Amino acid sequence: MNLRRATFLALLGSGYTVVHKLAHGLFPPLRTSPTGRGVTLLLWLSATFTLMVFAYQFLRELSPRDKRLRYSLVSIIVFTGLVIVSQLPLPPASEAGLGDRLLLRISAFCNSLAILVFLASFGRLVGRSSPLWVPVRGLLWGVVGTVALGLVSTGYLLVYLLTGRELEPVAFLPPLGIVLFLFTYGMTIWFLIRFWRVDNYAEFVDR
């Protein structure tokens, strides 16, 4: 395994994540059928795992100039791992609902913060003439929006935990979340395609 192959795997994983989200919205039986849930969960976990592979290979093969880049890659590996663990069908499922939900929310939010730090640090190494300039900035703004929506979602969850009331989200939040998801993953795929085609990684990092 090298960084180029890890980037290609992450590209496939990101593409599947979009398909997974759309399929769950368009085909409700995937959410209700035990077989559908099992198969799509396994594929989603595999797709999410490719992010860990990419971050690990980036960290292993390249020695980042900026320590924040290194710390953010380690954080991405850790929090992506926690996201995966929170979704594993571990028994007893009946007792794990709220705990898994909290672990998923917290891990996903921290993972978004780690990716945000990574993109901000990596973006400093990318010049305006680089083909990565636009996708890195676009992805950075997409993750900023994801973090902001994550904070709003966490606020709703805290209200539920503290008061026992489940509030209906503001009407524009669900469609905004869908648009932001598509934008962020569109930028992710664009960034990974460009990064996959990079011939000289030393342009961005020290050997």
Defining traits:
single chain; 207 residues; mainly alpha; 7 helices
Describe the structure.
The protein is 77% helix and 0% strand. It has helices at 3-26, 29-32, 34-61, 67-87, 97-123, 133-163, 173-196. Helix 1 packs antiparallel against helix 7 (173-196), helix 3 (34-61) packs antiparallel against helix 4 and helix 4 packs antiparallel against helix 5 (97-123). By secondary structure, it is mainly alpha-helical. The two termini are 18 Å apart.
SSE string? HHHHHHH
- The stretches of 5 or more residues where confidence is low (pLDDT under 50) are none
Instruction: Give the end-to-end Cα distance, rounded to a whole number of Å.
Output: 18 Å
Task: Give the rounded overall mean pLDDT.
Answer: 83
From the alpha carbons, calculate the radius of gyration and give it in angstroms.
18 Å
Task: Output the structural class.
Answer: mainly alpha
Strand content: under 5%
Q: Please tally the β strands and state the result.
A: 0
Principal-axes shape call: globular
Number of helices in the DSSP assignment = 7
How does the major sheet shape up?
none
Helical content stands at: over 70%
